[in-house]
Amino acid sequence: MWFGRVVKSVLGCTIAICAHAAVLSSDLLVTTGEAGHYGGSLVVLERAEPKTLNPVTALDAPSRDVIRRTTADLISINRRTLQTEPGLAKSWTTSSDGREYLLELRRGLRFSDGQPLTADDVIFTFQAYLDESVHSPQRDLLIIGGKPVSVEKLDETHVRFRLPRPYAAAERIFDSLAILPRHLLERPWREGKLGEAWGLNTPPAEIAGLGPFRLKDYRPGERMILERNPYYWKADQKGNRLPYLDQIEFRFVPSEDAQVARFIAGDADILNRVGARNFELLRTDAHTQEDQLEDVGPGLEYNFLFFNLGPVDAKRFPEIAARQAWFHEARFRQAVSAVVDRDSIVRLVYGGRATPLWGHVTPGNRPWLNAALPKPARSVEHARELLRQAGFHWDPDGTLLDSNSKPVQFSIVVSSSSPERAQIATIIQDDLKQLGIQTQVVSLEFRALLDRVLNSRQYEACILGLVSGDADPNPEMNVWLSSGGSHLWNPSQNQPMTPWEAEIDRLMRQQMTTLDHAQRKQLYDRVQQIASENLPLICLASPNILVAGRKNLGNFQPAVVDHYTLWNVEQLYWRHAPQARPAQGGVQ
Amino acid sequence: MKHWSVSRRLRISGLICLHVAVLAAGFLGPYDPTEQNRALSLQPPMKIHFADDRGRLHARPLVTAADGRRYPLRFFVAGARYRCLGLTSRTHLFGIDPPFRVFLLGSDEFGRDQLSRALWGGQISLATGWLAALLALGLGLGLGTIAGFFGGWRDMIVMRGADLFLALPWLYLLLAVRAFLPLSLSPWTAALAIAVVIGIIAWARPARLVRGVVLSAKERDYVYAARGFGASSWRLISRHCLPETYGLMATQAALLVPQFILAEVTLSFVGLGVGDPAVSWGNLLSPIRQLSIIASAWWMLLPALVVVFAAWCFSLLDNQGERNGVVR
């Protein structure tokens, strides 16, 4: 009896020592959050089911949300500080011309199936992303000035990246580029089937990553369960290997309202993003008012009104083409901006939980905000003066007429899936009435709206919002370059149509290759200034990031950049075992 | 009329009152339905009292304004200009002294008076319902009579066409049509377009029923007799067959008008019907798509009661038809 007990305790000690030795022998990253304890499951709601688990081809938000938990990148952007920090790469150095990056990988790391991570995996990963036949959305990030980034293995733990030309903040492109297991994906890649690999039908054993969790089970239409990755490469200050949670359960609930109802009913532990009204509802509901309801402040989303400034087929759409003469007049756009009541938008649409905007960089993006941009107060008088200068006048009824005495009226399209933007449109419509401008608000299904804006150009004005994926200006290139596909007011131009667009093109290209941060900031400040003077986008408001997590959830530190709540999922833990809440009515 | 039950009398008077109220929206509603009062967003309905702040009783009703004090309700007050049946006026049935505002059914997110909006909203919703129903009935009557009376290949074409239209998912078709309409349509034109589309799609059901009635009517002895005397097809149809369909038409109208009102409400509710600043019962209800509005501003649901009331009143004619043994 005692012999068995001794053997057991010796064995136990040996295993514990071995595990500790393994922790010591590998280069674990030690996190700074409070030390928690193991166990428990977290229920997270997604708007839709993921379409794939393949990091190379995933496009939709739910797939990316899941994949971010199952994979890891070389260098990460800390969602809280917006600065880069080491990931799988323990450290990196940059050459003085900014074109070479030498990365040192952590030693002794393993994929979630137990296979070791080597420099060959990194080389394979970049080969796969850069392969044109794979059609990876991340490929564009790795093409700089028309040429791909090259990768070279120096030894088992060192890789060198060469950029075709200097690229500012190039280390940020490594964020979200998941490192792939060569032992599992090289064959499909060689067979030209990498795009189809790791679909939802793939058995969990054939999927491996370096993220805190790995796939355990997927039931279509119901849920996806991820379990703890025992080989994860981060540890807490006490030396415990992360993550703390045993599993994450993703459930699929299509609308925000239904998600909020689930949270109130106790069926979910985290709400990644809620609107201001629902946030107030959670704050006042007896079941949720003690939970962690956090207003993280303005995020990177900016909502704006813009006019169709692109070439329009005058034969097919004569009315739109005729009205564009007003829209091209900068003073007309300035007058519209002057009359819009941004404070009312913030108060009535976002319940005060938003910030009025006069430029496209939000206060949430502190490192890049041009604080010197003017923030003129609303003034109907100033707007009338601007219109008068631009040759407009008013008839005795107060209707605004252009220089040909045609009444000024136009339509504004909004997405029918966004109640907030529809409300903004109603406010702007009423504000414009004060200038004698009649507007029709037309809500369209979101895809029909995008088709009109980007392809058929059959619209006059539109209210939209954009969310930057990163604080850095580089991901915004597509919006601000006149050749960009998201240059919404006049996309994909061959030549910049106006001098100020040419100037923005020049500044944006220059900031992309400037390595000095202060100099880049100066260039981007100038872009913001030109944009706020010419107003291709009349910026309106940036809603605050509002999130909810259970009271009992430790290390819950929501950020202003997506994923707002799960970015540090490996550190989340239950302070004490969550109590099962008895089923109750709630709002369903 | 003398054997009508109390409930039916109630319903028909309700229907008349509803239509009169909607027509006189400008007079009965205290404010312009599009006028925003951004400081008075989401105000609950105001209570009517007959005692003032000090407890003294008054014959004139008082309401509790936004500042928490009671103010007398005034009648026949001057306010926003409106047009009613071609006349322009500024007189409203009631109101309170500015700067305070009276919201008997509360106010919406932009501080617009819900009562005025519910009354004005009826104009587009009822007009859409009636217009679409008349169009569907007119088309149904014409095509159904042709099919039933003449038979043969005409019957074949019309009835196969009817099968096709009955199988159309009309809501999706309407969504598609709405997406193709020009953006600069005024809200009234948009409502008209919706009514026309609904009317054109919905002709099939009345056409089938009319065909059946005409088919049996043309076999009657007196029709054969008239034919023997040399009556033309037109005379046979207009004198002998069509009168048989009148009861059916009334029943169908009673069914179709509320159905089409609801179609407009559905479209505007999902944001694809009549847009701001025009107001219809559908876009009046669209804020309650949001959970937070239902949870915190119950009075935003009140316009739904108006729609329910309208549909209930319309069912009168339908019941009447059923009692007379008319095919539904």
Strand order of the largest sheet of chain B: 1-2-3
What is the overall pLDDT average of chain B?
85
Shape of chain A: globular
Main beta sheet of chain A: 8 strands, mixed
Instruction: Return the string of H and E elements of chain B.
Output: HHEEEEEHHHHHHHHHH
Measured between the Cα atoms of the first and last residue of chain B, the distance is 21 Å
What this model shows, in words?
The complex is a heterodimer of chains A (588) and B (328). Chain A is of the alpha+beta class and 588 residues long. Helices cover 30% and strands 21% of the residues of chain A. In chain A, strands 15, 16, 17, 18, 21, 22, 23 and 24 form an eight-stranded mixed β-sheet that branches. In chain A, a hairpin with a 2-residue loop joins strand 7 and strand 8 (147-148). Chain B has 328 residues and is mainly alpha-helical. In chain B, the strands form two sheets. Chain B has a three-stranded antiparallel β-sheet, with no helix packed on it. The interface between A and B is medium-sized, with 39 and 29 residues.
Feature tags:
heterodimer; A: 588 residues; alpha+beta; eight-stranded mixed sheet; four-stranded mixed sheet; 26 strands; disordered C terminus; B: 328 residues; mainly alpha; three-stranded antiparallel sheet; two-stranded antiparallel ribbon; 12 helices; elongated
What's a concise summary of this model?
With 588 residues, chain A is α+β, with helices and mostly antiparallel strands.
SSE blueprint and pairings:
The complex is a heterodimer of chains A (588) and B (328).
Chain A: H1 2-25, E1 29-30, E2 41-46, H2 61-70, E3 75-77, E4 84-86, E5 89-94, E6 100-105, H3 119-130, E7 143-144, E8 147-148, E9 150-155, E10 158-162, H4 182-190, E11 213-219, E12 223-228, E13 234-235, E14 247-252, H5 256-264, E15 270-271, H6 276-284, E16 292-298, E17 301-307, H7 318-328, H8 330-339, H9 342-349, E18 354-356, H10 380-389, E19 393-394, E20 400-401, E21 409-415, H11 419-433, E22 438-444, H12 446-456, E23 461-467, H13 477-480, H14 499-513, H15 517-534, E24 537-549, E25 553-554, E26 573-574
Helix pairs in contact in A: 3-4, 8-10, 9-11, 14-15
Chain B: H1 6-23, H2 25-28, E1 48-51, E2 57-64, E3 70-72, E4 74-84, E5 87-95, H3 114-150, H4 152-167, H5 170-180, H6 187-201, H7 204-217, H8 221-228, H9 233-269, H10 281-285, H11 291-296, H12 302-323
Antiparallel strand pairs in B: 1-2, 2-3, 4-5
Helix pairs in contact in B: 1-3, 1-12, 3-4, 3-6, 3-7, 3-9, 4-7, 5-6, 7-9, 8-9, 9-12
